[in-house]
Amino acid sequence: MHASFPVDVDLALVGGGGAASLVLAALDRHGVSGLRVAVVDPVHKRGQDRTWAFWGLPGDDLDPLLSASWSQVDVVTAAGRRVLTLNPLRYAMLRSAPVYDRAAEAERRLDAVRISAPAGDLHDDGQRVTVRDPDGRDLVRAGWVLDSRPRRPKRPGRTSWLQHFRGWWLAADRPTFDRQRAVLMDFRTPQPERGVSFGYVLPVDDRFALVEYTEFGPALLDDAGYDRALRGYADLLGLDLTALRVREVEDGVIPMTDGPFESRPSPRVVRLGTAGGATRPSTGFTFSAMLRQADQVARALAAGRPPVPAPAYPGRHLWMDAVALRALDRGHVGGVEFFERLFDRNPPERVLRFLDGVTSPAEDLAVMRSSPLLPMTGAVLGDAAGRLRARLRR
Question: What is the C-alpha to C-alpha distance for residues 30 and 61, in angstroms, rounded to an integer?
Answer without folding.
Answer: 12
